[in-house]
Amino acid sequence: MIPEKGEGIESVMLELSKLHELDTDYTRVFSSMCTRPHPVAVRAHLLYMESNLGDPGLFPASVEIERRLIGMLGSLAGGEEVRGYITTGGTESNIQAIRAALHMARMQGATPTNVVVPESAHFSFEKVASMLGIELRRAKLDEQMRVDVGSMESLIDEGTAAIVGIAGTTEFGQIDPIEQLSQLALEWGVHLHVDAAFGGFVIPFLHTSMRWNFECKGISSMCIDPHKMGMSTIPCGSLLFRQETLLDGLGVDTPYLTSKRQYSLTGTRTGATAAGAYAVMRHLGRRGYARVVGECMRLTRMLAEEARDMGIEPAIEPLMNVLTLRVPEPREVERALMRRGWYTSITRQPECLRLVIMPHATERAVLQLADDLKDVLVALGVSQSL
Ligand SMILES: *Cc1c(COP(=O)(O)O)cnc(C)c1O
């Protein structure tokens, strides 16, 4: 209830500080794809606290930051000339990418009715389907949890507005065969959207020759989230298009604002997170991110080794900083780890214990987690020989 008479600032802040203690410190969090923002992102965010990119004429600095940031993200994604905007995250980016694809298909005289996604697609595509009134077709995965290209092709028809590939799946950290999906998109003349919400700040810094970005000519759009592995402040995602015309399809007239057209899903939107992402990308550079990703991968492999020593195999050999373990009774293991203060999660199909090793993870925490996992497995009687 809003108080009749206002309270002093200190008393309000005291209440909030006490409440804040309920929030989880990231140290023992292995379930989230977000992390502590880099300090430079926090500083930049605070500096641009008041800015509203929904009314860009008033905030030309934020407009310029967004333009430069899209350019940097484009270069990370192998497309120097991309067009796009800073979103609130992967969900908004996915909604808007498919909206743009539908718009384009209609402009070309088609009647789009469906989108084909991998079974491993993020749950945001459920929102996409329900909001845009289209059918979501789910292509099967192979035993490595990558989308099966044959299955995807068998689901495409004249009503298909777009197909989706995932560069860094949420559950298994797998990378779909983007190059083959790109071929498929070119053959069928459909929009290919690549969801790199998580992988966009990981894959460029792995030692991999896998092709995943705009260098594949069939890709029309991509999303990359600075608020995940980009170490920026929340909420910060991005939507990148190969062609300006796709972005144009999202535009509406904005009669009483300082700009004439608006492309974002939200109206009023902060410039602070764009400043945050810009700052951390400038500060870390490719080498900085390569270090961060390198350390996350080192700890991921260390944890995988520890698990193997307990006789537990990963569901797939980790390509990214996501480790999925074939433990017996994963739900019980997750609950037991929770009682010991560890936040982990479970994959759906197959059910595995899922650990995301984010930049806040330390070697100490990883080794403690491994010790506790061993104890938990022994206590559950699934691993006596330890
Ligand atoms: C996290 C994630 C999303 C959703 O992003 P939000 O920022 O939570 O909206 C979409 N796709 C993938 C692959 C993700 O990992």
User: Percent of residues in beta strands?
Assistant: 5-15%
Shape, per Cα inertia axes:
globular
Strand order of the biggest β-sheet? 1-7-6-5-4-2-3
Number of strands: 12
The name of the CATH topology of the largest domain is Aspartate Aminotransferase, domain 2
Count of discrete structural domains: 2
Please, what is the CATH homologous superfamily of the largest domain?
Type I PLP-dependent aspartate aminotransferase-like (Major domain)
Hetero compounds: pyridoxal-5'-phosphate
Distance between the termini: 55 Å
Query: What's the multimeric state?
Result: single chain
Rg, rounded, reads 22 Å
Task: Indicate the CATH architecture of the largest domain.
Answer: 3-Layer(aba) Sandwich
Largest sheet: 7 strands, mixed
Mean pLDDT: 96
Percent helix range: 25-40%
Order of helices and strands: HHHEHEHEHEHEEEHEEHEHEEH
Alpha-beta classification: alpha/beta
CATH class label of the largest domain: Alpha Beta
- Identify low-pLDDT runs: none
